[in-house]
């Protein structure tokens, strides 16, 4: 009953449809990301042939604060392409452990 009081919006027909583009795309994802796991972009190149997926094996959600993530984004923007991008730093980039001294 409460919903009847809200205005109705228009939903575009193509909402939810896959996007096809040749624009370069760089996906950074963490192997331990429960919110947006690597499987979500594993097949991105089907629709985005110039896409590159870089998986950070020891990271969770968000790689922007990692030095490696920032370096990859900088290189991607400077080059205008993800082709040939050296992403080897992602293999060892990880969250810093949370340590507390209770003693």
Describe the structure.
By secondary structure, the protein is mostly loops. It is built from 1 helix and 2 strands, in the order E-E-H. A two-stranded parallel ribbon has the order 1-2. The termini are far apart. The mean pLDDT is 88.
Kindly list the characteristics that best describe this protein.
two-stranded parallel ribbon; 103 residues; flat
Approximate strand percentage = 5-15%
Q: How many beta strands in the DSSP annotation?
A: 2
Cα separation of the termini: 58 Å
Written as H for each helix and E for each strand, in order along the chain, the element string is EEH
Q: Helices and strands: which structural class?
A: little secondary structure
Please give the largest β-sheet: 2 strands, parallel
Q: How many helices in DSSP terms?
A: 1
What is the averaged pLDDT score? 88
What overall form do the CA principal axes indicate?
A: flat
Give a quick summary of the entry.
The protein has 103 residues and is largely without helices or strands. It is built from 1 helix and 2 strands; from the N terminus they run ββα.
Layout of helices and strands:
Elements (H helix, E strand, L loop, with lengths): L24 E6 L20 E6 L10 H13 L24
Parallel strand pairs: 1-2
